[in-house]
Amino acid sequence: MRRILYDGLVRWKLSAGREPLILEGARQVGKTWRVDEFGRNEYEHYIKINCDNNPKYAMRDWFIKSTG
């Protein structure tokens, strides 16, 4: 399973017209851990914004509406 998600993140990184990454899925399955690992291994610096931490700002909904 590790390679499937990680390889997908690498394909996203290498795609020419990539858009912001929104990673959704079930709770407690390792999404945050995997994105942190990907950021550490694939970039010199990276920023992670977790839009679920403060629903007051509803940034997640804004991203979905903007790209959908």
| Overall form | globular
- Care to count the β-strands? 0
Low-confidence parts, pLDDT < 50 over ≥5 residues? none
Tell me the series of helices and strands, N- to C-terminal. Answer: HHH
Instruction: Please tell me how large the radius of gyration is.
Output: 13 Å
Estimated structural class: mainly alpha
Largest sheet: none
Instruction: Tell me the distance between the termini.
Output: 28 Å
Q: Residue share in helices?
A: 40-55%
Q: Per DSSP, what share of the residues sits in E-state strands of 2 or more residues?
A: under 5%
Quick check: average pLDDT?
A: 79
Count of alpha/pi helices = 3
Entry keywords:
globular; 68 residues; 3 helices; 50% helix; mainly alpha
Secondary structure blueprint with pairings:
Layout: H1 2-14, H2 31-42, H3 59-67
Helix pairs in contact: 1-2
Summarize the structure.
The chain has 68 residues and is mainly alpha-helical.
Q: How would you explain this protein's 3D organization?
A:
- The protein has 3 helices and no strands.
- The longest helix has 13 residues, at 2-14.
- The protein has 68 residues and is an all-alpha fold.
- The protein starts with a helix and ends with a helix.
- Helix content is 50%, strand content 0%.
